[in-house]
Design goal:
11 helices, alpha/beta, 2 domains, eight-stranded mixed sheet, elongated, Alpha-Beta Plaits, single chain, Aminopeptidase
Length: 394
């Protein structure tokens, strides 16, 4: 059986060798090497079977129904690690700063555990365990790993699915879990404002795009508080402004990039419409513009029945449940839960010796959580199978 020592070793091996989205080739090989000889486990990998070159689908069982799913993400971030751990990243500027190494280790443990149950005749269904690549980024086609896997049909027979995400700000023995919307719609935009440049001493001879920018920024910053209801979660952040190259030259163009986050589809549509309406001011003041909006992940929605099932498991394990959302971040598991009933748990894993948070160069977590997470995944899979068998009367 899998021990905490196995889980920690897997996690640290993965942590030392992180790979960015769509580049997880060695990570994929590592996962396969840990699972390839397990009884009752069939591995699917490659673009033909999974829709994408990286990642692994480990199918545990004989293919009989019910078929349920577990998911972990395997990619890392372009972050330079500053933890000083002996197992710190070997790749400069790349780090597992979001806990995906832990997620992968927990799912590796779950596959081993489920294989053991299969050998003993105690797995009365099939579990598809997805080691999903490219959660953190989109490719040139604007798609993430989850979308490619869904398009491949590899999960088309999965009846329900669950995932875990580590929370480095919540202590061990706690979890965030609630039904409904728990993470945000993610939209990004690029606004190019055009004017006519000239000498900084003679602004009256120009249409200054920096001045036009100063007119539009207050409107953008006001739309979430003035155009969306106060009880509707929404955020608009300007994250990059590019314009000018000299202290005495007014440029011809300013580029503004940012993100819009929302929970409901109604708020999502409203925010974009209001941004576009406010941009008319640029033309009224003599400038022109282009506005490109990219719709990213939809809001993550936890299915009510699957959430209740997970609540029961957490209560039985003595985990304190905080019925709150996960915030305004995005998660491409949302593409999966839009099609397959599912839910995600944010599992407390705070490193009590180091205060840190997700996507930080000091990111760390309490490795004791790995065993708890593995058990929750296994018990969740078995509970989903039982739920479907009870529903089907078998």
């Amino acid at each position: 059986m899998v021990t905490i020592e196995h889980l920690i070793k897997w996690r640290r091996d993965l942590h030392q060798h992180p790979e960015l989205s769509f580049e997880e080739f060695k990570t994929t090989k590592y996962i396969i090497n840990q699972l390839k000889e397990l009884p009752g486990v069939r591995l699917q990998q490659g673009k033909e079977l999974l829709g994408i070159e990286t990642g692994v689908l480990a199918v545990v069982g004989d293919g009989s129904t019910p078929i349920v799913g577990l998911r972990a993400d395997i990619d890392a971030l372009p972050v330079k690690e500053q933890t000083g751990e002996p197992f710190q990243s070997c790749h400069e500027g790349i780090m597992h700063a979001c806990g995906h190494d832990g997620h992968t280790a927990m799912l590796l443990g779950a596959v081993h555990y489920l294989s053991h149950l299969y050998q003993r005749g105690k797995l009365k269904g099939t579990v598809k365990c997805l080691f999903q690549p490219a959660e953190e980024a989109e490719d040139i086609n604007g798609k993430t790993g989850a979308q490619y896997v869904l398009d491949s049909g590899a999960l088309s027979d999965v009846e329900s699915i669950i995932a875990l995400h580590l929370d480095p700000e919540l202590s061990l023995g706690n979890a965030k879990l609630k039904p409904g919307i728990v993470m945000a719609n993610v939209d990004t935009f690029t606004l190019n404002i055009f004017g006519s440049g000239g000498h900084g001493a003679y602004p009256e001879q120009t249409i200054d795009p920096i001045w036009l920018t100063s007119m539009i920024l207050p409107y953008f910053y006001s739309v979430t508080s003035r155009k969306v209801a106060a009880d509707e979660p929404a955020v608009l952040s300007i994250c990059q402004i590019i314009g000018g190259a000299s202290t005495n030259v007014i440029p011809e163009k300013v580029t503004i990039k940012g993100t819009i986050r929302s929970y409901s589809d109604t708020a999502r549509e409203k925010l974009v419409a209001e941004c576009k309406r406010g941009l008319k001011l640029i033309k009224e003041l003599g400038g022109t513009f282009t506005f490109h909006l990219h719709q990213g992940e939809p809001a993550l929605v936890n299915n009510q029945e699957i959430t209740k099932l997970l609540e029961n498991i957490l209560y039985q394990k003595g985990v304190s449940i905080h019925q709150q959302t996960f915030g305004m971040g995005g998660e491409d598991f949302s593409h999966i839960t839009r099609i397959i009933p599912g839910a995600m748990i944010f599992l407390g894993a705070k490193d009590e010796l180091r205060h840190t948070s997700l996507h930080q160069p000091t990111f760390s977590f309490n490795e004791s959580v790995l065993e708890h997470g593995m058990e929750i995944l296994v018990e969740g899979a078995l509970a989903m199978i039982k739920r479907r068998r009870d529903h089907n009367g078998s």
